[in-house]
Amino acid sequence: MxxxxxxxxxxxxxxxxxxxxxxxxxxxxxxxxAIEQHGHHxxxxxxxxxxxxxxxxxxxxxxxxxxxxxxxxLPYGKSNEHLGFPGTIALSAQTLxxxxxxxxxxxxxxxxxxxxxxxxxxxxxxxLEIAATDLRVKFPDFYTFAWFVWRGAPxxxxxxxxxxxxxxxxxxxxxxxxxxxxxxxxVRCDRAMAEYPKLTGGDGLIGVKGPTAAAxxxxxxxxxxxxxxxxAASLEIGEQLLEELVSGWVELITAAHRFxxxxxxxxxxxxxxxxx
Length: 276
What we know:
The chain is of the alpha/beta class.
């Protein structure tokens, strides 16, 4: 899908950017993906394709009165957990952080005050959250948001089996189904596999995701690169996920446009203890 030209930031001239009204409430969205293995059946571009295509569609559905533009996709991410599989291209956390910080600073210098970091890869939310906080601290009138693409569909796990919801991480039902809806020709359905990690010694307290997760490399969990069940994917699930994600991102972009910090709540304590 080709993004409507009115929402493509890179299609503007510098004078058109300078003439934009209400730049302080215009939302710029930076989609950030990854180029990394996704098993035998999915292409390296999955995370980048999902982030950019969900954003394309959300900006098409967005109320025309809400000013919002897509920045060009940043296709590389912190994917070092997948470096044991050929094709993965990874940035260090330091490089990704520095890159996003410098993009954010450029956006701020151009007069924009709202930046959404739209993350398509599950291996880098912490880096992008640090970037958003550091930009906010450096520029106190800059509203910055670091959101995972799947937060647009908070209830997406209802489309998965219980096991997939608990243990599926990579290349399973959700990603495979969504890619069938976005770019079916890129999915090698005949090569899809199901593989889940085997863990021992954690007494049920330690897993591979959640608040008590162990750090892992993909080869610790999988021989195929998949952690989940790609064989259970379907176009029907993908179309449902796509509709929910796009609708959710329309709501998120609208909220980013309207959001404000308006002050503090009432305090009944000693005013000398209220802080700076």
